[in-house]
Design goal:
single chain; Immunoglobulin-like; 4-stranded antiparallel β-sheet; 4-stranded mixed β-sheet; rod-shaped; disordered C terminus; binds 2-acetamido-2-deoxy-beta-D-glucopyranose
C-alpha cells in the first residue's frame, strides 16, 4: 500500500513538484494545560493539518519530540481526508501532566510528499502548575507543649515536623492560627511556625487556664492547606515572694505567761497558685538573738522557756524567716520585738526545759540575794547553838543561872560574869586559892577544861 502511494507520488511529481505544508495555524504554536487530573488522558492537545498542492497528493507526517520522553506522553491519530492529512495529538491513556516532573513538551512535525520534506512546525505544550496539598512529616495531628507561665513574647515552642510539598522550591508556606480556645494568648511566626505567648500569662490569676489549644493552618501559595493542633500546658511558676502584713509584731512576756502560750501569729500569704510555690514555712533566722525562748509552730510563735528571764527588761528582737516551697525559693523576714515587764506576781515554777545556762539578758537577781541572806542568818544561828553546846559541856549549863548586873557582862554573849560565879562556887568547895580565882576572872579559856576535870574527880 505504502509502496503504491510512493510510486504514485513520484509519478505525479515528475510533472510539477510542490512542497507539502501545514494549514490552519501559524506556527510556532504554544498551548497550556494544567497538570494533574484536571487534564485527563484523551484530552486533545492540538491538531495538525497538512496538504500538498499537487493533485491527489496527501502528505505523510512525522514528528520529533523534545524531550524524547514526550513520545510516551502523547498519542497522535492521523486521518487522510483525501485532500489533507490531519493529526490529532491527545494525552496518552493513563498519562497525567506533572509540572514538577516536566513543565514543557515540544513536538516538531514534518510533512513529506515522497520527494519534498516541509520545514518542521513547532508545537509547545506548556504545563501549568496547580500546586499540591502540603502534608506534614511525620504525620502530625497534634503536638503538645508545656511551659511555665511567662511574659508576652516568651517562646512556647517550635513544630516537631517538617512540611512536605511537592510543589517544590518555588512554593512557600504561611502559618496562621485558625482557631482554638487559646488563640488570644498565642501567636505564631508566619514563616516557621514557632509559637510565642501573645500576652503576659499569669497563672496566679484564675482566669488564665492551665490547658489551652490552638489550631494551626499551614497554607501554600496555591491556598492549599494542612492543619494541625498545638496543645499547650502552662504551669504555675514560683513568681511571688511571700507577703507579710504586718512585718513587725510586738508582745510582752508577763510573769503569768506560761510555756506554750501563743505570743504572736504571723500573717503571711504567697500569691502563687499552686503548692509548693505557695506553701509557707516559718523558721527563726539562723543568727537571730533570743531564739531559745521561743518555739515556732507554723505561723505561731509560742513561749518555750522562761526560767532565766529578767523581768523589767527589753525590748528585745527576734527575727523570723518565711519561705515558700518553690525552686528557687523566695523568702521574707518579719521582726518580733518583746519586753518582759516588771514582776507583779511570782512566776510559774514549772518549765518544760532543763536547768538554764544563764546568759546576758535573762537572769532574775532577787533569788540569789535571798539565798545569800538566808545562808548568813543560818550560819549565825548554828554558831550560837555550837557555843551553847560548848558551855553545857564545860559548865554543865547552857546559860548562866543569873547575871547580877549587865555592866559586868563582857562583849561576847558567852562571857557573863555569872559564869565565873558559878565556877567560884564549885571551886571553893575544893579549896581553890584566891590567886586562881582572880586568874579565872580575867580568863577562863585554857584553864576551864582542867577546872571541869577537877569537878568530875
Ligand atoms: C521524516 O521522513 C522523511 C522521509 O522518510 C525522512 O527523510 C526524515 O528524516 C524524517 N524525519 C524524522 C524526524 O524522522
Ligand atoms: C496557564 O498559564 C498561563 C501563563 O501563566 C496562563 O496564561 C494560562 O491562562 C494558564 N492556563 C491555565 C489552564 O491555567
Ligand atoms: C522562627 O523565627 C523566629 C524569628 O525569626 C525565630 O526566633 C525562631 O527561632 C524561628 N524558629 C525556628 C524553629 O527556626
Ligand atoms: C485577671 O485577669 C483578668 C483578665 O485578663 C483581668 O481582668 C483581671 O484584672 C485579672 N485579675 C487580677 C487580680 O490580676
Ligand atoms: C481549652 O481546651 C482544653 C483542651 O480541650 C481544655 O482542657 C481547657 O479547659 C480549655 N480551656 C478553656 C479556657 O476553655
Ligand atoms: C486554612 O487557611 C486557608 C487559607 O486562608 C483557608 O482556605 C482554609 O479554609 C483554612 N483551613 C482551615 C481548616 O481553617
Ligand atoms: C493579714 O494580711 C491580710 C493581707 O494583707 C490583711 O488583709 C489582713 O488584715 C491581715 N490580718 C491581720 C490579722 O493582720
Ligand atoms: C497576766 O497579768 C497581767 C497583769 O499583770 C494581766 O493584764 C493579764 O491578763 C494576765 N494574763 C493572764 C493570762 O492571766
Ligand atoms: C495558731 O494560732 C491560731 C490562733 O490561736 C490558731 O487558730 C491556729 O490553729 C494556730 N496554728 C497552729 C498551726 O497551731
Ligand atoms: C522595772 O523596775 C525597775 C526597778 O524597780 C525599774 O528601774 C525599771 O525601769 C522597771 N522596768 C519597767 C519596764 O518598768
Amino acid at each position: 500500500m505504502k509502496e503504491t502511494i510512493f510510486v504514485t507520488v513520484l509519478w505525479f511529481c515528475s510533472a510539477s513538484c510542490t512542497m507539502p505544508y501545514f494549514t490552519t495555524d501559524t506556527y510556532p504554536v504554544t498551548v497550556f494545560f494544567t497538570e494533574g487530573p484536571s487534564t485527563p488522558s484523551g484530552t486533545i492537545i492540538h491538531t495538525f493539518h497538512a496538504e500538498d498542492d499537487e493533485t491527489s497528493v496527501v502528505p505523510f507526517l512525522n514528528y520529533t519530540y523534545d524531550p524524547i520522553s514526550g513520545q510516551n506522553m502523547f498519542h497522535i491519530e492521523e486521518t487522510n481526508t483525501g485532500t489533507e492529512r490531519t493529526a490529532v495529538v491527545t494525552l496518552k491513556e493513563f498519562k497525567e501532566f506533572d509540572y514538577e516532573t516536566q513543565d514543557t513538551y515540544k513536538i516538531t512535525a514534518y510533512a513529506f510528499d515522497g520527494i519534498l520534506l516541509s520545514d518542521g512546525v513547532l508545537l509547545t505544550i506548556q504545563i501549568n502548575d496547580t500546586g499540591e496539598i502540603p502534608y506534614l512529616s511525620p504525620a502530625t495531628d497534634s503536638q503538645s507543649f508545656e511551659i511555665e507561665e511567662n511574659a508576652e513574647g516568651s517562646i512556647i515552642g517550635s513544630p516537631s515536623f517538617t512540611i512536605v510539598d511537592t510543589d517544590g522550591n518555588q512554593d512557600y508556606h504561611t502559618w496562621t492560627i485558625s482557631g482554638g480556645n487559646g488563640s488570644n494568648f498565642v501567636s505564631i511566626n508566619p514563616n516557621n511556625g514557632t509559637i510565642v505567648l501573645a500576652a503576659d500569662y499569669d497563672r496566679d490569676n484564675t482566669s488564665y487556664y492551665e490547658d489551652i489549644y490552638v489550631d494551626v493552618n499551614i497554607t501554600d501559595k496555591y491556598d492549599l492547606s494542612v492543619t494541625t493542633t498545638y496543645f499547650i500546658k502552662i504551669t504555675d511558676k514560683n513568681d511571688n515572694i511571700p507577703q507579710c502584713d504586718p512585718t513587725l509584731y510586738t508582745f510582752d512576756i508577763e510573769r503569768n505567761t506560761s510555756v506554750g502560750t501563743i505570743l504572736s501569729s504571723i500573717n503571711c500569704t504567697d500569691n502563687d497558685l499552686t503548692s509548693p510555690n505557695n506553701l509557707l514555712t516559718y523558721s527563726f533566722v539562723s543568727n537571730s538573738a533570743n531564739t531559745e525562748y521561743f518555739s515556732i509552730d507554723l505561723e505561731n510563735i509560742t513561749l518555750a522557756y522562761i526560767n532565766d528571764l529578767i523581768y523589767g527588761r527589753g525590748p528585745y528582737q527576734l527575727l523570723v524567716q518565711v519561705s515558700d516551697g518553690g525552686i528557687p525559693s523566695y523568702s521574707s523576714t518579719v521582726t518580733l520585738t518583746f519586753t518582759i515587764p516588771n514582776a507583779t506576781t511570782l512566776p510559774p515554777t514549772t518549765t518544760l526545759l532543763p536547768i538554764p545556762v544563764y546568759d546576758d539578758i535573762s537572769y532574775d537577781s532577787t533569788l540569789p540575794a535571798l539565798i545569800i541572806i538566808i545562808s548568813i542568818v543560818g550560819a549565825c544561828i548554828v554558831g550560837y547553838i555550837m557555843i551553847l553546846c560548848w558551855r553545857w559541856h564545860t559548865f554543865g549549863a547552857c546559860l548562866p543561872r543569873h547575871c547580877p548586873t549587865s555592866q559586868q557582862c563582857r562583849m561576847c554573849c558567852t562571857c557573863c560574869p555569872g559564869d565565873d560565879l558559878d565556877l567560884d562556887r564549885v571551886l571553893s568547895d575544893r579549896a581553890v586559892s584566891d590567886d586562881f580565882m582572880q586568874k579565872k576572872g580575867s580568863s577562863f579559856g585554857l584553864e576551864a577544861p582542867s577546872s571541869r576535870t577537877k569537878i568530875s574527880r
